[in-house]
TrEMBL record, chain A:
Belongs to the ABC transporter superfamily. It comes from Agromyces allii. PANTHER family: ABC TRANSPORTER ATP-BINDING PROTEIN, ABC TRANSPORTER ATP-BINDING PROTEIN NATA. Its main location: membrane. It is found in: Cell membrane. This is ABC transporter ATP-binding protein. Keywords: Antibiotic resistance, ATP-binding, Nucleotide-binding, Transport. Residues 9-234 form the ABC transporter domain. It is a peripheral membrane protein. The keyword Transport applies. GO terms for molecular function: ATP binding.
TrEMBL record, chain B:
This is Exporter of polyketide antibiotics. The chain crosses the membrane at residues 40-58, 102-120, 152-174, 180-200, 259-280, 320-341, 361-382, 415-438, 450-474, 481-503, 523-544. Coiled coil: none annotated. The keyword Secreted does not apply. Keywords: Membrane, Transmembrane, Transmembrane helix.
Amino acid sequence: MNAASTPAIEVAGLVKRFGAVTALDGLDLRVEQGQVMGFLGPNGSGKSTTIRILLGIARADAGAARLLGGDPWREAVELHRRIAYVPGDVNLWPNLTGGQAIDILSRLRGGVDRTRRDELVERFDLDPGKKARTYSKGNRQKVALVAALASDAELLILDEPTSGLDPLMEGVFTDVVRELAHQGRSVLLSSHIFAEVEKLCDSVTIIRAGRTVEAGTLADLRHLHRTSVSVVLPGGAGTLARRADLHDLAVDGERVSFTVDDAELGGVLADLAARSPRSLVSTPPSLEELFLRHYGVELPATDDAAGAAVASKASAS
Amino acid sequence: MTALAPAPSRPTPATPGHTPPVAAFTAFPDLTRFVLRRNWLRLAIWVIVLVGMVAMVYESQRVAFPTQESRDAYAAVANTPAVAALTGLPYGAGTLGGILNIKIWMTLAVSIGFASIFLLTRNGRAEEENGRTELIRAGAVGHHAYSLANQLVVGGLSVAIGLLIGLTCIGLGLPAEGSLAMGASIAGVGIAFLGIAALAGQLTSTSRAANSLASIVLGVSYLVRAIADVQAEGDTPSPLSWASPIGWAQNMRSFGENVWWPLLLLVGLGIGGCLVAGVIESRRDVGAGVLPDRPGPARATGSLASVLGLAVRLERGPMIGWLLGGLAGGLFYGGVASAMSDLLDSGNAYAKAFMGQADSVLDGIVGLFVMATAMVAAAFAVQSATSVRLEEASGRLEPQLAGAVSRTRWALTHYLVAAGWGIVILVASGLVFGLAFAASQSDPDQVPRILAASTAYIPSLLVLVGVTVLLTGWLPHQAILVSWIVYGASVIIAMFGPLFSLPDEVIDATPLAATPRVPGVELQAMPLVVLSLVALAFWALGLLRFRARDLTQA
Ligand SMILES: Nc1ncnc2c1ncn2[C@@H]1O[C@H](COP(=O)(O)OP(=O)(O)O)[C@@H](O)[C@H]1O
Ligand SMILES: [Mg+2]
């Protein structure tokens, strides 16, 4: 089979019920080889359930799921040699040390690269000689992260992997995942931390109540949405307020801000140019905005939001 | 605007597939080593205690019945309904092997049954419940590899204990075939309950429920065979005996006729249980039981949102279960005691010795049965008292204490629920026992007598809970294990202390044996006062330390 064309993850119409609760209701998800996919959704939307089905430790009621081209349930053993997994809530054996736990988990995947393991233990600043019962949540998380990131897995499945890590360690995590992505590994990163996903992922899938509501590259998604514009016009808003294609218009003396559908952006900019603006900042929608829009919350287009988004524009473009 | 993933080229419906047989067990050797490493100490303790018990009891019986005449005299009187009900139908009492069987076989069988249940659940359902199985199964690990490793280690324990018991008996000079049959019958019970525990671990979704379900099956098996043994004709039990796995093993009649084929039934139940468990396992999600979790109320009622209300709610299932168990036990003992009153000859020398200093053999037996109900009540109380450590170890205690609740009040509430409900079970089963016995004897005076005998165990029960209070305060990490060791030792010494040739002072220094066995002996105040003071000291010291020390999670 042609390995390059087989998606790392391919899920279509996945349904999972727990008694009366429908956790997944026709979910779709596709991760190409080498892709770093953000998997976003509010609490209880079905991220962990999807991942558990992909790991072959839970069974779907309907729909199709393929992992690296294989059946997650039937071919679990061979597939698990090629993947690594980090759960969001790591529970370790209280009377084994963190180092022992790393080795056990790595061996069950199929072997440990000692140098790589030691390097990561160092980078994550973990004391591997302590009993797991003395670890904080963040330290338990590091154990699972080291075991997974030290592996030679083609695909990393990370379920809210940074919960409990301090910002410094989050930075280390980001660096390591970037390095792995450069090596061409695929990553599925479930998260609710937008900054993390924006930093690491080239694509995102947003789910809600067990269904996919949005999927694509970050750039595409932004394109489908409104850009926020913040502009200083010496003459004030004037007739601008009458344009039907501006949304969320806010006028504060000379300062005018609004959002505009990307399709209308050209016309609006021509209009603005005629009014000789003194400054103009246009910001693509942040992931957070995209996300919240799906859940019925609109962010006010304040100066704060625009200011904060300047940086993200710089890094995104 | 929604970009759907294109349908996969070769969609596979997510119906139960069949794992290739070999892949289902990938990583089995690694996992077996892992289970051994996590459990070697527990395994060693079970082996040493059970095999050691055989050697000790044999020695004491050899001394007690040194000549063939003494054994023949014993054989003439050994078959009493009390012995049959508690320790199994006696046979072959004219030989040392037969006597060894009468004295220790049932204890070994029940113990090894519990060993299988607790160990299998500890490594099975408990690991799944706390999410570690998920971590393991995410590795290149076959669907059944971990369960099989667990079953193999626990089954191996039974085989090892059975083999060592057989070899020990041979080493002590007992007939080889009987020795091996005894070891095999004990191992068989362990393997049978391994199968039952494996099933229980698949049906339920918590370790507590799995342990309870399998223990109930063990308890019912014990009762069924007790009824069968009481209804025996001579030394042949009633056919009902075949309805209980413990009965199957008894019917191997080690040191008697040495019948081997029931071993097939026992091993068959063990393997069959594991196979069915494997089938269920391959059809369900990791972490789930067979029954889905049902939704509950979205709000806590006022009473639930209090320390006492929560303590009672968390213990509700065991409280009801153990009370029903205690009542059933009381009823059963009432019936057995009545059945015996006609048969018993108070001149029966052996029975007299077995029943302590009671003037009337019947009273001695009633005292023994009351103690048995006290053991049930105390088992509930200890289990319930360990919930304090469980709440602490799981990290659930910290957020509770972050509310406006004092540590001492929180812990004391839990301990009082444990002890209070233990006393309810004690008194209720004593009452039912008394009523059943009084009705059959047409003697209403039996009710207050037996009730008084039950009530006398309240201080013992408070001491046993006190042990848990003390340990939870001072030795939190070992508290639960050591609590059960102390409880188990108290039970074994109270039942069999004289068999181990232990000095009276030692026997009377254990909580259950210290209580006077009313109505066979007079109710003295002194031991009860001492027990109460000891209980008070344990509770106070334990609570003081619990208030002063750091909380530590598992
Ligand atoms: N074992 C289970 N039994 C019943 N309901 C469950 C179970 N596991 C998950 N759920 C339900 O499925 C839904 C999705 O949960 P999950 O996948 O854990 O969400 P997420 O990881 O996105 O927060 C939730 O409504 C959750 O309550
Ligand atoms: Mg989750």
